[in-house]
Amino acid sequence: MNQAIDMTINYLPAPTWNWLKMNEISVGSVAVERRGEYKAEIPEGISEEITDYVPAEVRSGAGPDMDRLIAASGICSVRLSTDADIEAPVRLDFSYEKKPSGINALELAVGKNARMTVIMNFASDDDAAGTAAVQTRYHVAPGALLRLVQVQKLGKDVTFFNDIGGVCEDGGRFELIQLVLSGRQTYLGCRTELSGTSSAFTADIGYRAAAGERIDMNYVANHTGRKGDSRINASGVLSGDAFKLFRGTIDLHRGCGGSVGNEKEDVLLLSEDAVNQTIPLILCDEEDVEGNHGASIGRPDADQLFYLASRGIPEEEACRMMAAARIDAVSSLIPDEKTRKEVRAVLHPGEEN
Q1: How far apart are CA 21 and CA 24, in angstroms?
Q2: What is the largest CA-CA distance in the chain?
Q3: Residue 212: CA atoms inside 13 Å, Cβ hemisphere, count?
Q4: Tens-place pLDDT, residues 93-149
Q5: Pairing of strands 157-168, 47-52
Q6: Helix (H/G/I), strand (E/B), else coil: 73
Q7: How far apart, in whole angstroms, are the C-alpha atoms of residue 10 and residue 220?
């Protein structure tokens, strides 16, 4: 049943930048051969079920072509659910081979007033080459909390599709932490439907891209319920001829009165050859709302570099420290000490943790 799919993904909810060709990304023909393997640690109180894959009615961040890719692969979906307050995290370790070619579909369901934390690690050998994809669908019931942590450490020639989409009901909260530490081409999409009253979505994204690497991102907070709260924060570092496109949309629909949306991106450019594109977008069809967006993009501060040089720290090392500090700030939000230590080992090789 495997076949190649011509994919266009990461659509903006409303076409805005036609002449710059930033509204979406066409990635050409994509084929993923089999179900990806992973090691799972599932705490007591969380059930696991294998089901047929059925595209959800709710749109994901990447869009319909991601559904088509998964359906064409013929894989099943793995559903993790709980109706309890579970403190211990689910751990899913995706360890790709030298030639990654795996695809996975997951569903996360958190019952009323329940809590679940899921940690996904995506890793491969440094010299790995291939394509992998993961789609995560979620549903957060009234008063529930879902925390999703994703850490990417992939090889220099790996293309990775990471797609998320789901719904938060009344008082439901979805908290997303993502770290992209390496990978040739990375496509990230996340769309959250804030349909419930006082539902909330937060995304904290940290990324770094070096020479020859590309990151394309699309995050959407879709406010339809009253008094919703969304916050999208991204912080990244680009070096060499790295390329990055960030789309962040807060969509405030009629009837979502009292809702608040904030988004911000902070980008550090360590090279004149790096290419950064940022689209902070607010769409509004309701008067009683608040929406804020902003972006800070630039090279290392000259005064800071001078100060560090006066303390005996050369410019190259100072830039490395500044870059690591941005990712450290996001990794410090991870609610799991083991994962924080693993990230620190990547950011600060040779240090004792």
Answers
A1: 7
A2: 63
A3: 8
A4: 998 877 777 899 999 999 999 999 999 999 998 888 989 999 999 999 999 999 999
A5: unpaired
A6: helix
A7: 10
